[in-house]
Design brief:
Blueprint (H helix, E strand, L loop, with lengths): L2 H13 L14 H8 L6 H18 L19 H7 L25 H5 L7 E6 L2 H12 L6 H13 L9 E4 L4 H7 L3 H13 L2 E2 L3 E3 L11 H8 L3 E3 L9 E9 L3 H12 L4 E9 L3
Parallel strand pairs: 1-7, 2-3, 2-6, 6-7
Antiparallel strand pairs: 4-5
Length: 287
């Protein structure tokens, strides 16, 4: 090949070079999704190796805080003792065996009154803690303050909850609750997907973006259960149905409030052939 041909070939390669897939400033964002999806074809160990290499590169360029992920105190990257002490009173509370909401008393009915009165399409939801105090602060920091480095420790806490619950032993696929395209472009990341990836690595399970949100819906903050059900009705659709067909699936979201989102997503997955659907969220309410 002559020198002119070589220059032309180099120019062609430069023009067709793939766009970067990692946004180091923003962490795992829209651009990173395409790269991370390719990990689903790797074994658990291979995926962990790739993930650790990429995360190490990100940490070198834009390192997370050297101290506590929540308050920044200390020099270690784990939660400091002060923040752990704030978490302790909200951990290990009794919960409804169906919706996972935390019960105000160990003597309360289980399942809770709401679940006894209404059948749910999902088998069970579990959450790390009530949506209050330090746990509410953590989700708010991840979701609205762009502290993406919180996703790994929060995801590991969620994975620990699943490991301790025998109902999750049959799970084979993790499906994150999706954002609408407009909201994803605005936020630049889906917190549920970030959490799902960490859970997937911890449990050795495949993360599949099997759901799409077909339309933008109003924010549900302040809506009651009836309004929330109406707000999400028909909003989800299943893609890649073959990947969930016959499988026990766990849905991952950041917050479980009334359960309307999880219920609607569960119905779609079951209609697509999923064997069973469970849910795993970071926080939920109390009954």
């Amino acid at each position: 090949m002559g020198s002119a041909q070589k220059r032309a070939e180099r120019g062609r390669r430069h023009r067709t070079a793939p766009k970067r897939t990692w946004s180091v400033r923003e962490g795992r964002t829209v651009e990173s999704d395409k790269a991370m999806r390719s990990l689903s074809v790797l074994s658990s160990q291979e995926a962990k190796t790739v993930r650790n290499l990429v995360q190490g590169l990100l940490d070198l360029i834009y390192p997370p805080p050297a101290g506590c992920p929540l308050c920044g105190a200390g020099r270690d990257q784990g939660f400091c003792q002060s923040c752990l002490d704030r978490m302790a009173p909200l951990m290990g509370l009794p919960y409804c065996e169906t919706c996972g909401r935390f019960l105000v008393s160990a003597a309360a009915q289980n399942p809770c009154q709401t679940c006894r009165a209404t059948s749910q399409p999902y088998l069970r939801n579990r959450s790390v803690a009530p949506h209050e105090g330090v746990f509410k602060d953590l989700i708010h920091a991840l979701k609205y303050n762009r502290r993406l480095w919180l996703a790994p420790p929060l995801g590991r806490m969620m994975a620990s909850v699943a490991k301790a619950d025998t109902a999750y032993r049959e799970v084979r696929v993790i499906v994150p609750i999706p954002l609408a395209p407009d909201r994803l472009r605005e936020r630049r990341f889906n917190q549920s997907l970030l959490l799902a990836r960490e859970i997937g690595f911890e449990l050795g399970l495949r993360v599949v973006d099997a759901l799409v949100r077909q339309e933008q819906t109003p924010h549900q903050t302040g809506m009651d259960a009836v309004a929330r059900r109406a707000n999400v009705k028909g909003v989800f659709a299943v893609r890649k149905g073959r990947l969930v067909r016959g499988q026990t699936v766990v849905l991952v979201d950041d917050v479980f409030t009334t359960g309307s989102t999880v219920a609607e997503a569960s119905r779609e997955l079951l209609q697509a052939g999923a064997a069973e659907v469970l849910s795993l969220t970071f926080t939920t309410g109390k009954n």
